[in-house]
Amino acid sequence: MQAHLIKAENKGLRQTEHVEKMQRRRGKPLFHYLRDMNDGKAIFYSPSKIQGAQRCIEDQARIKEQKEAEKAEERRQKQLRKEENQRMVIQRRQQREQKCREN
Questions:
Q1: Residue-by-residue pLDDT tens, the chain, 103 positions
Q2: Is residue 10 part of a domain?
Q3: Is 11 a member of any domain?
Q4: Which of 69, 85, 99, 103 shows a CA-CA span of 20 to 30 A to 51?
Q5: End-to-end CA distance of the chain
């Protein structure tokens, strides 16, 4: 029973977040995408064309998020390589010091 209430609450919160996100959206208006589809001809705002333009905007947002995720992953990998190199430098330094002590 409690799990059902939590799921319903989560669903409502997700819908609210989506609505707020759509209201805050900045950038090119929807009609810019419709204009590109018709190349300067008369524009008829059919529901299918509006949905297509909305999908185009969503696809672009998804691509942007993927690129940001890839960049974040690259930064993480670079940091890991840097840390590994530092460990290797320290290890080599310790090995040199041990050789000097033995000789």
A1: 778 778 787 788 788 888 887 777 666 677 776 666 556 677 777 888 888 888 888 999 999 999 999 999 999 999 999 999 999 999 999 999 998 888 7
A2: no
A3: no
A4: 69
A5: 74
pTM recorded for the entire structure: 0.52
What are the residue ranges of helices labelled H in the chain? 2-24, 30-38, 47-102
Domain of 33?
29-102
- The dihedral built from the CA positions of residue 65, 71, 77 and 82, taken in this order, carries a sign that is negative
Question: For the CA atoms of 32, 34, 36, 37, what is the dihedral angle to 10 degrees?
Answer: 170
What is the token pair recorded at 36?
């590109």
Residues in the chain: 103
Angstrom distance (rounded) from CA 81 to CA 89: 12
**Count of domains for the chain:** 1
